[in-house]
Give the backbone structure.
Amino acid sequence: MAAHTSRTLVGRDAELTELSSLLGVRPSPDPGSGTPGGVALLSGDAGVGKTRLLVELRDRAFAEGWRVFAGHCLDFGDSALPYLPFSEVLGRVAADLPDVVDQVAAQYPALARLQPGRRVLGSAGAADTAEQAGTLDRADLFEAVHTLLETAAATAPVLLVVEDTHWADQSTRDLLSFLFSRPFDGPVAVVASYRADDLHRRHPLRRQVAEWSRIRGVHRVALSPLPEDAVRALIHELVPEGLSEKELVDIVERADGNAFFVEELTSAAAEPGRWVPPDLADVLLVRLDRLDDTARQVVRTASASGRRVSHEMLAATSGLDTAALDEGLRKAVEMNVLLAQEGRYAFRHALLGEAVYDDLLPGERVRLHARYVEALHDGTVGGTAAELARHARLANDLDIALTASIQAGREAWDVGGPDEAAYHYQQALQLVADPRRCERSAVDVSKLATNAAEALSESGDTIRAVALLQEQLDRLPAETPPEWRSRMLTSRAGILIVVDTDEDPAEVSAEALALAPEGDNRWRARALTTHARVLAAVGRYEEAQVVGLEALALDERLDLHQLASEAITTLSGLKKAGPKEGLREALLEAIARSEDADAMHAELRARFLLARSYEDWAEWDDAEEWFRSVTVRADAANLPWTPYAFESRVQLSWIRTVRGGWDEVLALTDMAGQNPPPIPRANLDALRLNVLQARGEDVGAEGRKLRRFWSREGGIAIHSAALEMVHAGRTGDAQGAVQVYDDVVAVLSRTWHEWFSARIRFAAVAIGAVNQALPPLSAAERAAMLPGVERLSEDGHIVVQRYSDPSGHWGPEGRAWKKRLDAETLRARWLAGVDAPPREALVEAWHETVTLFEDFGHVHELAVVRTTYAGILRATGDTAGAREQGDRARAAAHDLGARPLLDELRAIGSAPVRTETAPDALTPRETEILTLVADGRSNGEIARQLFISAKTVSVHVSNILAKLDAAGRTEAAAIARRRGLIG
């Protein structure tokens, strides 16, 4: 990854518009429309983008016919050269308008004293200036500069830019005061910029800005930090190939909207281990050099706390008495290093605090953190367990760090923060494994590991949860109590059922149950309840029923309400084998019981299963309602990425895709400002890319990036493999579409089982992509593709034969894709001219496909099959039927914004039906045949495609040649194209 400096103005359109309006930067005015001009003071922190904004203003002014002259103040400390920016301006005016400078210098000789060449050490001009220093009349000089700008503006408006006036000398400030208060008769605008964070209380410009602000016509524009969306846009501009969401969030949080910080952090994003880039740290630490020793000590102590620190904590840890602490804080605040905020102090920029902390010596850091630990642990200063854990770890006080980490994990879990809980529990597990600890035996590692895994699962990182439990199981000593292993295996089995893996969760849960103590106890109750859920999830329904009833009885005997709700939800879901009404009734009861028991996970699972029941029967309104209810309940509990919650968001997005609510899909899958785990993100990305592809965007590269998730989550494979197949069809890569099918089937056969039901959809989409690529191929190439098509079709029929579901029912979606597979197979034979089906069979297959997709209700796929059906009807002579299907498909495609489908429909209708109003007019059939002739088809191939005899084709071709007065087939095609008879 390489970052560059952005050349595009990002996130400053409003400020640019405001500044342009205040200064009148617009095209040269018509007579009587007013004169451009005005004064603006542009302020903002260092790096926030003042110079970039002024460059854009300059470019706009140039484009509107203005002349722009800029001068810069430089940091020379006490050796500042008077009027330096105006010497630079004079030099620029002299280069562009030498006659103007000569004219004004003749009237005001003092102007020559500002010429850059006369101020260089050793020059004659410099000697003259020294000799006459006491004779210069400042009033003449000020008038000279004013007149110079006004004279330059006689032929075109002038924009004067003075940058970095926080470094301006007193003379420059006085001259600016004169220009601000003395109006111009001509079109002259002035803008001066300065760093707001450099204006400490004793800075001379601070008072000057206050005075300038009271001058009539002087306007202040404060450049605030960039908002998050602008920061993200800037990062994309800097790194077009993109960063991970984790890196994006880190930069957004740390840069505080400062464009310079964003660029530096983005450039350093490829350098792991560097907290603050060295160049940026050097810039930031310059501020520390301006402080005295006391203020520096205060700031360094504060840096150990992070961005913010309380006054009480500084008093307890700085080692300074009250007077010295107050004095140090005052200086740090005055120099804009710290900000005072309601009893707390914060670094003006987060990165400034980080740079100060990084600059501490290792021993200094440990000692500072030890002081923080002492203050927090003995109660001198109030704080959280998370704060104590952090400082204890960094102070190498591992015993306190362990205890505080566990407590912090519990606190985070109790307030609905699974991400934070997972972090603290994992920190505790690392500390338990540290050989320097001497109290390891006092910690129940099984409980700690289970808590960490469940927190990871709730935050959406189920893969990591499963791996963590296995790591901890492998580390357990041989003498570990069997109930510890039972607890960890139970948790692992429960998470495995929502992870795509070749491991059998039922074996894991069975082992957990075998290790659980006999009798009535919580260990066994949890193991039984989980084993029943796992058995149901892997399709062992009869066993799940037996184990579930045993688990429910034990849960109720022990008064374990949440576990009982889990068991009831599992038993309710087993009613799938009966009528759907029975299943739904049972799940509604399970939801009510879970709510009463405050069993959130059982409730979410029951709501999800109920939504899936409606989804399976394409009862979309109810499905949407229940999936939404899962996301709402999960969001309220701060569990948006727990498995059933994010899966509900995925399913809701898919339903909205099916129903044509594509704008809502893009909103549901928009994760800007969020930081989901990789699997949920990839799931939602796949759905988003399907919509974008259907609207005509080339998402092939993004789709291929999702392949790395295929083995980890089947849903991602299903949606992204379809993306790749469609892309292959659009690009004419028939073999590529088949290869994608083989690739995804190989992965999912290992993860699930060989004859999974989604193979039917894969086969239909792949054959459809092949059909899209067939027409331009030669007859031999088309025939060569048929064996692959037949193999995919046979795969689909094997799946149908082996399909196993407790309901024994194919829903509307399954029936639609089964028929689509058969229809696409017939179409492939028809297009290839090999074993072509009778015309009636082909038309009937596609008619039934349209009917079944109408039942399914998938708006886009219905438009797709209608489009294909329209093309077949047209080719077989049913122009009225083709027009009806095409019109209905076109209406849907317009509503969806599906450009590729509209293009295909235009291609189908590109050969209009013509009436025989002239001797050379072609009949609809002749137009169809001529179109195929132009594609290079032989008479035999045309006959098979149009279901007519080769002799009939020959007669039609002869008539076409005669009507067009063409000597041969090639000439006839050329004439027809010139006349617009064919596309």
